[in-house]
Amino acid sequence: MADPGYSFRQYLPRSRSIQDILAIVPPVNIISYLTSKIDKFSPKRQDDKNANPTVTSSLDFIVNRFSAFSTYVHLSIFGNAANLADENASRITTCDPNDYYHALSIDCTQVPRCCVEPYILKGYVLPYMPWRYYLKVLWIPNNELFNVWTHLLPSLYFMYLWFTFSQTLDLMDNWPLFSVTFASIILTMCSALAHAFHSRSTYHHSCWFMLDYFGITTFAFSSTVAHFFACSELSYYNMFGPINLKMLLVNCFLGFLCCSISQTGKKLVSICHARRYKLWSNALGYLYGMLPVGHRMYVLWHDEDPAITYHALQFLFLVLAPLWYTSDFPQRLFPGKFDVIGHSHQIFHIFGALACYFNIHAVHMDITSSRWSLLSSQEGHPDFHTVLFCYGILCVYCLLVGIYMATVVKATNSSLGCCCAKITEENQDPNNNEMKKEQ
Questions:
Q1: Of 136, 252, 280, 434, which residue is least crowded by CB atoms under 10 Å?
Q2: What is the C-alpha to C-alpha distance for residues 134 and 195, in angstroms, rounded to an integer?
Q3: How big is the chain by its Cα radius of gyration, in Å?
Q4: Are 110 and 93 within 8 A, CB to CB?
Q5: What is the mean pLDDT of residues 105-111?
Q6: Mean pLDDT, to the nearest integer, of 82-94?
Q7: Which of 13-22, 141-150, 230-239 has the weakest average pLDDT?
């Protein structure tokens, strides 16, 4: 069994010699392959009882050295030894999926590398299990447990807010509030689903998180549209006018594209740059969307406007969320101590949910004030049907990009082979005949 802390070391710079690689990853597969080729072209080798043992040993030595060199080249191209560790089926630990605490015995060397969180050493769920197995993420101790609930509970609460608003307001006429609340539901629900089911395989990881990025893009479009057309100062609105709707749509196109590219693995972007793609594409998009609110806070900071406080809190948590996500704090200081609860991704989810909450209430305050009446009466101000049409365009675009990126991921996995350790027969549920091993 590999050292559970090995994947932790992949985040630290380190050079490896051929001897280091041989000690970590014995090139058994390459040896077997080359040996079979030699046997094919040397049929007398096994039959000849008088074969020279020196020649045989020399051939084995050559095959072993060549396989070591091939392994070294593979690691140089495709990353450090964690990639080959994912392909080594001997690393999987036999465990009972029905055991309530079984995830706590699964370390970061036994799951797809894309599912490994930095400095989270244990608590991973098994790959290649039936779909119903991943529903256990909702209650068994694992590193995704609170990632799911920190967005599932806010999603249910936002549904309650949406219902409450509909009792007192016509949400069609007050479409910015409808848009922001609905987008918050989509954002948190897509995130909860992605964290529940992404661990099934590398391919499913990419597909489910592209759904998560669709939720992020929808919320970004909804909140920024509301900021421009319901929360901005009239002077700022007149500087840009209705063209903002087109600019925001293009901005969301680029943001979703960058996030989706980050899930294609090394086909289009290196793994080490994937986080940067996601961080900067979202950060720049949100900062652009916060411009009208920032202008308003600058102009009216000393006025008695309660909505400004909610907008400021929204902006604070929108800034803290990605910073905390990329900091890997506190698990960076104590690897393995925050595997189930307290790691940075969970805190990132809490900050994101709080940003949605304050955004909804800030827009609600602006909708129920004279600001909305003033802005909605301006010439060229979009109505609900125009915004709904833009939503349709955004959904079609995200669907087409998502399908294309999914085919890229699938083709990459097929060409490089499965990058996950296979589940052994002992890991399968004996009562389930629908187990599928994905290649």
A1: 434
A2: 10
A3: 27
A4: yes
A5: 90
A6: 43
A7: 13-22
Which single residue is written with the structure tokens 């036999």?
94
- What are residue 107's DSSP bridge partners? 122
- Which of 302, 287, 258, 233 minimizes the C-alpha distance to 401? 258
pLDDT of residue 85: 40
Contact residues for 24 (Cβ-Cβ < 8 A; gap 6+) = 2, 6, 81, 85
- Work out the average pLDDT over 259-271: 66
- 29 close to 132: Cβ distance less than 8 angstroms: no
Gap between the terminal Cα atoms of the chain: 23
Token pair for residue 368?
């129920």
pLDDT of residue 104 exceeding 90: yes
Full 3-state SS string of the chain: CCCCCHHHHCCCCCCCCHHHHHHHCCCHHHHHHHHHHHHHHCCHHHHCCCCCHHHHHHHHHHHHHHHHHHHHHHHHHHCCCHHHHHHCHHHCCCCCCCCCCHHHHCECCCCCHHHCCCCCCECCCCCCCCHHHHHHHHCCCCCCHHHHHHHHHHHHHHHHHHHHHHHHCCCCCCHHHHHHHHHHHHHHHHHHHHHHHHHHCHHHHHHHHHHHHHHHHHHHHHHHHHHHHHCCCHHHHHHHCCHHHHHHHHHHHHHHHHHHHCCCHHHCCCHHHHHHHHHHHHHHHHHHHCHHHHHHHHHHCCCCCHHHHHHHHHHHHHHHHHHHHHHCCCCCCCCCCCCCCCCHHHHHHHHHHHHHHHHHHHHHHHHCCHHHHHHHCCCCCCCHHHHHHHHHHHHHHHHHHHHHHHHHHHHHHHHHCCCCCCCCHHHCCCCCCCCCCCC
- Cα–Cα separations (whole angstroms), residue 343 to 7, 204, 249, 404: 17, 23, 34, 33
Give the residue from 165, 219, 163 showing the smallest Cα distance to 187. 219
Q: How far is CA 374 from the centre of its chain?
A: 40
293 is written with which tokens?
A: 């609110």
pLDDT greater than 70 at residue 50:
no
The closest of 264, 255, 263, 305 to 283, measured between CA atoms, is 255
**What's residue 414's pLDDT?**
60
Phi, psi of 122 (to 5 degrees): -135, 175
Query: Which pLDDT belongs to residue 68?
Result: 46
pLDDT confidence bin for 303, thresholds 50/70/90 = confident
pTM of the complete model: 0.73
Give CA–CA dist 68/89, Å, rounded: 19
